[in-house]
Design brief:
The complex is a heterodimer of chains A (435) and B (143). By secondary structure, chain A is an alpha/beta fold. Chain A contains eleven helices and 21 strands. Chain A folds into two domains: 329 residues, 3-Layer(aba) Sandwich (Rossmann fold), CATH 3.40.50; 99 residues, ANL, C-terminal domain (GMP Synthetase, Chain A, domain 3, 2-Layer Sandwich). Chain A is globular, with a radius of gyration of 22 Å. The two termini of chain B are 16 Å apart. Classes of the chains: A alpha/beta (435), B alpha+beta (143).
């Protein structure tokens, strides 16, 4: 049975959603133009009278906001309200050192609770569930975001946070947790640890996994569902927009429903900035329509998706749906001119049962030529003591990658469990190129 | 019947082989025979030890993956042509030897050679028919 947290809006006709979006867009543009000097200046410099905007289509004429804007206004200069109105602050570690700081008013926290509640119910979670929340609590938005949603729907939440795998597994068994929330890579790590401890993850009471914070493939989903005997669903969010709860898959697994009455999605060509037509692959851009502390206009997420506005055939939600994240603009590797997303290589590896789902990509440059080394673990079950068979396995991985990506790579088999497991986002790429 | 060999996947990094064998040494496990098949990036260490179950346990405790494989340990005349004689028997029957290596110890004037063939039972029966002594795990232990 399909359940909704806020049925009226989640299944409203698209036209109705667009009406709400336009109304809210007008308001938020007026709001940021009044309250945030950065936007005031930006609109002025571009000769834009944002108060004149009268259709959603005109949004494409507005400039983008990038992550660097948040860093440049570190820590609080982009906030629209005085700090006394801010009730919570989060931050994410930037790849370049400085933190990206985000703030929430009381109403923002209510909004976050609402969209996370919609997300949890969309995944099939209800009041009777026991949510083992293994996203990190703290400055990272994952832990508290799920927490607020769980409170909103009245489920039982175990705020265990990330890490401490043995304790996670003990609590899971003793408290009979039914929902696991964490990164997809951590869920696999946990399953592996469980087996080492003599626990069959398939026999635990976990029935749903709400997994996110890093891109993962359909192949990885199959693997996780097999290891855990659970429904593994993808949740999307980013702290700049609100945290987890921007979009969520339903049991139909045909895209993530964007809560578009609060977060207006566009898909653009990352090179030209032009808005792409429905179904075309590009960078996801989001505008917050109702946030108070840190509203963002046309924020470039760096995430590659496709989007559709068709009603979901499974749950009948009418909110636009984005695909699973196909990669990041910024972890896109260019190897000898070929664009490579680590998720593509993951998809290939998942099709090869002899290798473990843990891998690492090492990029080096030798004599001006890029070299991509794919390190994969041999599994204990399939490790052969015959070198011939191991070499065949290496060749198989190499050929599969080459035929899928059109790129020749070097495959290096490494010892089981030798690739560093991560409690949070897995470190998949080591780029040692000096460019 | 056959003898149990332990196979360990080892990455080619300085000190790794030493780490593995010293774990065995520290735990009082004696290596009776060994071979190392190597490639550019990794090797497969194959060993026959006196206490195989203890060996598997301590290796696993140290996070080293190890699998058990059955091999044939046969007595070979330590004279010119001794080995060739056995290989001849295999060749006649069309049994392919995947790899082989020799024991450190000798029994009298005879050497012990380890053979890995596809069908261990077939290989073993053949050698027995030909009157060649093949060893069991128990016998290896008490060598």
């Amino acid at each position: 049975m399909v359940n909704y947290f806020n049925r009226e809006i989640e299944t409203a006709p698209l036209k109705k959603i667009e009406e709400i979006q336009l109304e809210r867009l007008k308001n938020i543009l007026r709001y940021v133009n009044e309250k945030i000097p950065f936007y005031q200046k930006l609109f002025k410099e571009n000769n834009l009278n944002v108060e004149k905007l009268n259709s959603l289509d005109e949004l494409k004429n507005l400039p983008f906001t990038t992550k660097s804007v948040l860093r440049d206004n570190y820590p609080f200069n982009l906030f629209a309200i005085p700090l006394s109105e801010v009730v919570e602050i989060h931050a994410s570690s930037g790849t370049t050192g400085k933190l990206t700081v985000v703030g929430y008013t009381k109403n923002d926290i209510k909004l976050w609770s609402e969209v996370m509640a919609r997300s949890l119910v969309c995944a099939g979670v209800g009041k009777d569930d026991i949510i083992q929340n293994a996203y990190g609590y703290g400055l990272f938005t994952g832990g508290l975001g799920v927490h607020y949603g769980a409170l909103e729907i009245g489920a039982t939440v175990i705020p265990i946070s990330a890490g401490g795998t043995k304790r996670q597994l003990m609590i899971m068994q003793d408290f009979k947790s039914t929902v696991l929330t964490c990164t997809p890579s951590y869920s696999l790590y946990m399953a592996e640890e469980a087996k080492d401890m003599g626990i069959d993850p398939r026999k635990t009471t976990i029935r749903i996994g709400i997994l996110g914070a890093e891109p993962w493939s359909e192949g990885m989903r199959k693997q996780i569902e097999k290891e855990w005997n659970m429904l593994a669903l993808d949740i999307y969010g980013l702290s700049e927009i609100i945290g987890p709860g921007v979009a969520m898959e339903c049991e139909g697994k045909n895209g993530l429903h964007v809560w578009a009455d609060h977060f207006l999605p566009e898909v653009i060509n990352p090179e030209t900035g032009e808005v792409l037509e429905e179904g075309k692959e590009g960078e996801l851009v989001l505008t917050t329509l109702t946030k108070e502390a840190l509203p963002l206009i046309r924020y470039r997420t760096g995430d590659i998706v496709t989007m559709t506005k068709e009603e979901c055939p499974y749950c009948k939600r009418t909110m636009p749906r984005i695909s699973k994240i196909k990669g990041r603009i910024d972890d896109m590797l260019i190897i000898r001119g070929v664009n490579v997303f680590p998720s593509q290589i993951e998809t290939v590896l998942m099709k090869i049962p002899e290798v473990a789902p843990h891998y690492q990509l090492v990029v080096t440059r030798e004599k001006h030529l890029d070299k991509l080394e794919v390190r994969v673990e041999v599994t204990e079950e399939t490790f052969s003591d015959e070198v011939k068979k191991l070499e065949e396995l290496e060749k198989k991985v190499m050929d599969e990658i080459e035929s899928t990506l059109g790129l020749s790579v070097e495959v290096k088999l490494v010892e089981p469990k030798s690739i560093e497991r991560s409690m949070g986002k897995a470190k998949r790429v080591i780029d040692m190129r000096k460019i | 019947m056959a003898v149990t060999q332990l196979s360990i996947f080892i990455e080619n990094k300085p000190g790794r082989l030493e780490e593995v064998v010293s774990i065995l040494g520290k735990n009082g496990i004696n290596i009776r025979a060994l071979s190392l098949a190597d490639t550019k990036d990794y090797g497969v260490l194959r060993i026959i030890v006196d206490k195989k179950d203890d060996a598997v346990k301590v290796l696993k405790e140290n996070g080293i993956s190890v699998i058990k494989t059955s091999v044939i340990a046969a007595e070979v005349e330590d004279t010119p042509g001794g080995l060739a004689g056995i290989l001849d028997f295999f060749a006649e029957k069309g049994i392919n030897v995947e790899y082989m290596y020799a024991f450190v110890e000798k029994t009298g004037n005879k050497a012990i050679v380890v053979f890995r063939v596809e069908n261990i039972k077939e290989g073993e029966n053949l050698l027995k028919e030909k009157g060649i002594k093949v060893f069991t795990d128990e016998e290896i232990k008490s060598l």
